[in-house]
Amino acid sequence: MDRNNKIAIYTFLISLGVLAALLWIPIYLAGPDGLEQVQYDLTGNDEYEPESNFSFDWSPFPDYGFIGIDNNYAHTWLIGLIGSIIACFMIFGGFKLILVNRQSEEKKSETVKKE
Amino acid sequence: MHIGEGLLDLKILIPIWIIVLGYGAISLLRIRKSVKTDQVPIISVITAMVFAFQMLNFPILAGTSGHLIGFVLMAIFFSPSTAFIMISVVLVIQAFLFADGGIIALGANMFNMGIATLLGYFIYWIIRKKFSKNENKDKNTKPLLIAAFFGAYFSVIFASIICGIEIGISDNFPIGIEKTIPAMLGYHALIGIGEGLITMMVVSFFQKYAPEYIPPIEDLPIWS
Q1: A91:B175 CB<8 A
Q2: How far is CA A81 from the centre of its chain?
Q3: How many C-beta atoms lie closer than 10 Å to residue B141's C-beta?
């Protein structure tokens, strides 16, 4: 197997390892993050959320939740897996597209030069 | 550090969006020239890895947690412009699919985690350039790991300062920057340690098993 692909597969396995850790880390220990905690500390309101004229309600997995799965560990793991795969394919597709365009432009300029 | 909808007002968001879109366009043009086709699989899996690490919250103080940003980690392997595109894709997925961070506030999140963090990468660059002169000859990886730790640590500090300024000057948040900046810095000074350690761990793994992915000092990009 090509070394580059081997490294890519190992790296993806590390990601899966990280995701697997989500199944064992007690999620309840991980409270609000730094910014949320600052909002709570400064406003004194645990539920502080400013009003907004815009709200996006079409997220398929709002707040990393998974419809039908109540187990915190399981749905966080599943969402992590889905998100990682989507991120991987979006970057792969996007970069390939950019590079294919570049290659076709390079070929065009080469043909022009030859002519 | 994902800013939600409504926290920032338009007088802050509009200029930030203009900067982010301009910077994004320049970054795309740069990666068109600098990225090689055989780098695409590893760029993709490292983005996936950063997404996975961002889900892994670590407790810092009673009741508070932190998670990786990952910008410096990605910039160490590729370049700051490539890392900006990678982190932007992660943030877009988080905002649209998981409602983590606002859609209108996405520009601010991209700015904080992909542009403000650039200063952390510069710290990595300076430390490595200054102290890694004999890295190749002596096979000494310590300066690289120290540079990775401090670069990642300060990227969180800079991002938190910028975030503190944004929410402090926003009309939608009742508290001013005199309180938001110290409050943000207090928590993120601790979160940065986690960022530094994770970055150092991943860089150390690659340094051992796939050192060709870490650019040597002579090819170390300052931006590109």
Answers
A1: no
A2: 9
A3: 17
Question: Strand (E) positions, chain B?
Answer: 58-61, 64-66
Does residue B31 belong to the interface with chain A, where contact is any CB pair within 8 Å? yes
Nearest residue in B to A57, CA atom: B99
CA distance B183 to chain A (A): 6
d(CA B211, CA B31): 22
As for the ipTM of the complex, it is 0.90
Using the 8-state DSSP alphabet, how is residue B171 labeled? T
- C-beta atoms of A18 and B98 within 8 A: no
Q: How far apart are CA A79 and CA B50, in angstroms?
A: 14
Which H/E stretch holds residue B21? helix B10-34
Q: What is d(CA B85, CA B79) in angstroms, rounded to the nearest whole number?
A: 10
| Helix A3-22, helix B177-209: angle, nearest 10 | 130
Q: Which CATH class is domain B10-219?
A: mainly alpha
Q: What is the pLDDT of residues A46-98, one digit of tens each?
A: 666 777 777 788 888 887 887 778 877 778 788 888 999 999 999 999 999 98
How far out from the chain centre does Cα B39 lie? 20
Task: Please state the domain extents for chain B.
Answer: 10-219
Which of B38, B61, B65, B191 to mutate: most A Cβ within 10 Å?
A: B65
Q: Letter for the amino acid at B218?
A: E
Option in A12, A35, A80 nearest B163 (CB): A35
